[in-house]
């Protein structure tokens, strides 16, 4: 496979501030990824950054089965508050198995399997994502040092192996609720994610208004 290329960019005003949206594409497969960029990221100062894997159900449909939508909004808000940073929108839905297979995995979870067991039952690995492309995107953007917003040690390890200088891990524990506690437990216990529970209170923080919303 050929290396990903930067192909276009434009201004993107959002509720979190004005970003540049930068489009990337593999010349042979036409597989696309994007990055949202704010401020000057090409100096020698560490850049606050998030690698966010695509999650239609969480990001756009506000599903409570995961913490993805909450993490996306919180990361964009934190980048905006700093006035500079990068969010790579890594387009590998369902930990790389695709949207329809993700829904199939949801169905298996409805029957009692956890997220990893469901992926394995469908014939996939626990996580099919390839984060190395994100290192290429950081390089194309001219990012030299990264403060990575993540709970996932695999993202950190992959970036370091790919030559990206991760100077700090910034925790991103948001969005816990009674529908995703077991999902978060599975990520912590089976995938080694750095999960901090919300004192078992199961309060959701609205990703847009930042107000705590008790469950009914």
UniProtKB/TrEMBL annotation:
Pathway: Cofactor biosynthesis; riboflavin biosynthesis; 5-amino-6-(D-ribitylamino)uracil from GTP: step 1/4
Matches recorded under CDD domains: GTP_cyclohydro2
Pfam family for this entry, one: GTP_cyclohydro2
Domain GTP cyclohydrolase II, residue spans: 8-171
Cofactor: how bound: Binds 1 zinc ion per subunit.
Enzyme Commission number, as recorded: 3.5.4.25
InterPro entries: GTP_cyclohydro_II, RibA, RibA-like_sf
GO BP annotation list: riboflavin biosynthetic process
Binding site for Zn(2+): 55, 66, 68
Cofactor dependency: Zn(2+)
SUPFAM superfamilies, A to Z: RibA-like
Enzyme class: hydrolase
Keyword Lipid metabolism (UniProt): no
Positions annotated as active site in the UniProt record: 127, 129
GO CC annotation terms, alphabetical: cytosol
Residues annotated to bind GTP: 50-54, 71, 93-95, 115, 150, 155
Catalytic function, reaction form: GTP + 4 H2O = 2,5-diamino-6-hydroxy-4-(5-phosphoribosylamino)-pyrimidine + formate + 2 phosphate + 3 H(+)
Keywords: GTP-binding, Hydrolase, Metal-binding, Nucleotide-binding, Riboflavin biosynthesis, Zinc
GO terms for MF: GTP binding; GTP cyclohydrolase II activity; zinc ion binding
Residue ranges crossing the lipid bilayer per the database entry: none
Role according to the record: Catalyzes the conversion of GTP to 2,5-diamino-6-ribosylamino-4(3H)-pyrimidinone 5'-phosphate (DARP), formate and pyrophosphate.
PANTHER family per the UniProt record, alphabetical: 3,4-DIHYDROXY-2-BUTANONE 4-PHOSPHATE SYNTHASE, GTP CYCLOHYDROLASE II-RELATED
HAMAP family xrefs: RibA
NCBIfam families cross-referenced by the UniProt entry: PRK00393.1, ribA
Family membership noted in the UniProt record: Belongs to the GTP cyclohydrolase II family.
Name the record gives this protein: GTP cyclohydrolase-2
Organism: Canicola haemoglobinophilus
Gene name for this UniProt entry: ribA
């Amino acid at each position: 496979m050929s290396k990903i290329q930067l192909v276009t960019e434009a201004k993107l005003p959002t509720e979190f501030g004005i970003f540049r949206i930068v489009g990337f594409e593999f010349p042979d497969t036409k597989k696309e990824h994007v990055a949202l960029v704010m401020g000057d990221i090409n100096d020698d100062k560490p850049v606050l950054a998030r690698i966010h894997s695509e999650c239609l159900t969480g990001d756009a449909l506000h599903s409570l089965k995961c913490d993805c939508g909450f993490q996306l909004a919180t990361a964009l808000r934190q980048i905006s508050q700093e006035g500079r940073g990068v969010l790579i929108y890594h387009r590998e839905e369902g930990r790389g198995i695709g949207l329809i297979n993700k829904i199939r995995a949801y169905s298996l979870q409805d029957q009692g399997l956890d997220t990893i067991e469901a992926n394995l039952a469908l014939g996939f690995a626990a996580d099919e994502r390839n984060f190395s492309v994100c290192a290429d995107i950081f390089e194309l953007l001219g990012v030299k040092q990264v403060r990575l917003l993540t709970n996932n040690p695999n993202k950190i390890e992959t970036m370091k192996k790919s030559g990206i200088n991760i100077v700090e891990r910034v925790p991103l524990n948001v969005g816990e609720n009674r529908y995703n506690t077991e999902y978060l437990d599975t990520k912590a216990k089976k995938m080694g994610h750095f999960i901090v529970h919300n004192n078992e209170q199961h309060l959701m923080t609205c990703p847009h208004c930042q107000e705590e919303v008790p469950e009914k």
